[in-house]
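Predict the 3D structure for this chain.
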Amino acid sequence: MNEIHRKRYKKKRYLIPVVLIILLIVIRLSLPYFVKNYVNKVLADIPGYYGQVEDIDLSIIRGAYTINGMYLNTVDGNTELPFLDFKKTDISVEWNALFHGKIVSEIEMTDPTILYVFEDQQDTTGVADTEDWSKALTNLVPIDINQFTIKNGKFAFLQLQADPNIDLHLSNVELSASNLRNVVEKTRTLPSNIHATATSIGNGDVILDGDMNLVKEIPDMDASFSLENANAKALNDFTNYYAGIDFDEGSFDLFGELAIADGYMKGSFKPILKNAKLIGKDDGFLQTLWEGFVGFFKFVLKNHKKDTLATKIPVEGDLNNVKTKVWPTVTRIFRNAWIQAYNDVVDDDLNYQDATEGADKLNNKKTKKK
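Done. Predicted structure below.
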């Protein structure tokens, strides 16, 4: 009898581990299916949008999953072009943060594309809301995001009903944002860092650098950006449609600074047009006449020594009511033309403290009114 019990015990001893192993294998093989269904349900439930995921890969050892072929589009859109097209999104636990006592995630997106088709976004019934899809995509990540990386991204604005079609885009986007949840350098006012490079329409070089605090309900920020050496002819579809002018030659630069503190924004944009010639050989009589008229004012307002037409546009105000200062913008055109040409660099004359002072002044005004 004892011998029989021993045999049964031995069988159970081997059977239980085998069953557990088989069960774990089944769970592992089934998980991608359930995760894929969950993600597709999240995309399907976004008001005004529809989307789908092609495939999901799991890596339990490193605590990660990869979403392949995810797209999202507006329900009422006239085109088949996906608003969001994310080829590969890798979401994983950031193991380095564990040494700081935080459980956070890192995301790496490869070949993501965002296409803002003007007609698709304008023709929606009002159901589609940016906040809805951005929250939904964030909810796909089970824990807070601390590191965010984009490799070879593309962002574009398309207006397909314009003749010819307007395509303003940034390609080859490389972006890295770190310490988004204040895992390290907790005492800094702006503890998170962002750096990005890209190629603009007209093969211009784009650089963005900044510091942020995304933990706040309304994030604070201090950033600067530059776009240099873009071929002005690449803007012709846009400028011809909206202003009736096109460039025969020239280059375009744009430099800017932006600071946000407690919901108050202060910034400036400095567009510079270099060596620009408006009248093209194939323009008709009326087009040539109009461009000649515009060209006359360009001749009067440009800095002849550097052959630049430029100004500096200040923007300031509460984020719900940001205003552009028109008069300073106009007077600075004359400053560039007749007094001193603007340099093609970021001026670095605005910082986070300026936005803080603006926020304090606004709050003081509100207090006095009460």
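The chain is about 30% helix and 40% strand.
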